[in-house]
Amino acid sequence: MKIVAIVQARMGSSRFPGKVMKQIGGVPVIWHTLQRLKWVPELNEVVLATSHLKADDPVAAFAGREGIPVFRGSHEDVLERYYMAAKAHGADVILRITGDCPFIDIEVTSRTIRLFLDERPDYASNTLEGTFPKGTDSEVFSFSSLEKAYHKAVGQQEREHVTLYIYSNPTTFVCKGIRGERDLSYIRHCIDYERDYCFAKALFYHLAGENIFFSTEDVARAIEKYPWLLEINRSVEERPAR
Length: 242
Known about the structure:
The chain is an alpha/beta fold.
């Protein structure tokens, strides 16, 4: 069984253009995402999936220099891009990660994969109950579920948001989730806006001295110690559901 992490990333963004190549700690946002995934023990391969647009050449080139395989596909039909990337890399199980989440939690991601492997649902995630910080999203699903979504999903939102068709059809797909020991959903370190980027840089500054791959619990302790950090991006709008 081959488990492949497919990281979607692009340079275009109406809210914060070029965000995945912005610097945190002297390296691009996408570097943090890709490097953390290398420490997830269940993964067999990490692939970056970006679009065929010339504007996305920089992120594709960077991943290539880091030794990460790159798949380039549809700009707007992200579901198709995922399906084709998974097919090209022979994935039996897919971990979906977005490249604007530099602080994904290695252990939380691993737990989500283990849930999928132990209970064999069609889809497993840490987002169904919303107890983890926004920016730690990990979704795991079978290739057969992705293939079914690829052929059945027709709406624009379903094509843009890869897993929407799957978790919106619980009578068709068995969905399982993990939850945190406490609700940390008030913490937001995904990067959708410039204020999110400022928060991520501040968080990294306070935590990276001990371990650049700090955990969700490390983040929670930093927030407890420096509660003013939350004010940096408290007022940003929520992004659409996955």
